[in-house]
Amino acid sequence: MDLPVAGFDWDLGNLEKCRRHGVAIADIEAMFRRPLWVISDPAHSIRERRLRVVGTDHRGRHIFAVFTLRARRGEMLIRPISARYMHKREIRHYETQKAEAEKASRSED
Fold this sequence. Notes:
Number of helices: 3
Low-confidence stretches: none
Order of helices and strands: EHHEEEEH
Mean pLDDT: 88
Radius of gyration: 14 Å
Strand content: 25-35%
Number of domains: 1
Strand order of the largest sheet: 1-5-4-3-2
Number of strands: 5
Shape: globular
């Protein structure tokens, strides 16, 4: 997915929450420059639209993150809310769901 954004919106709150899960800020930012699978998160989109994303860092480790997009001074920024590395079972589930979605997409064409 190609996100038309100018950068990231970090503050002490989201920096600490992501670090607490052991994911480096550089890995989160790098993940958003790689292929992503983005899913809407309507259950948690009360004040603003939240999205869930699965991607990989530069070592190929799967990362699950929640983020929102925020406009600041006329530019769109990614605001990571939380991020963590995925467990093996989650990765298998993600790979299965992704393959099914791609298959359905191809059959619609």
